[in-house]
Design goal:
The chain has about 100 residues and is an alpha+beta fold. Strands 2-1-4-3 form a four-stranded antiparallel sheet. α1 crosses α3.
Length: about 100
């Protein structure tokens, strides 16, 4: 995905050369619903959120004892990284409010 890791979110459907693509031309998602809020969209997923949000969500989920951490959060493909879909679900569980993440 062009711009992966930046506050600019380019559509996943873009078929571009990431070395020459102007990531700054993509929309800056995140605090578009006000202070301490990020929008969730079908095209871009969860907008930019500060790192403490997923960290807090993971900590709360781990401490809840509701998850089989190895089976639910990791896979052979994700190795030591929590799967994106698992992290998105965890963040939404603790901070989600309709189509936004509020922190």
């Amino acid at each position: 995905q062009p711009g992966d890791g930046s506050v600019h979110h380019c559509p996943l459907t873009d078929s571009v050369d990431p070395n020459t693509y102007d990531v700054g031309s993509c929309p800056k998602l995140g605090h578009t619903c006000g202070k301490d809020c990020a929008v969730i969209s079908d095209d871009y997923g969860i907008g930019h959120i500060p790192p403490f949000v997923p960290l807090a969500a993971v900590k709360m989920a781990y401490n809840s004892g509701e998850y089989d951490v190895c089976a639910d959060w990791f896979s052979d493909q994700s190795l030591c990284n929590i799967k994106k879909e698992a992290l998105d679900d965890i963040v939404y569980k603790y901070f989600g409010d309709d189509s936004t993440i509020k922190f």
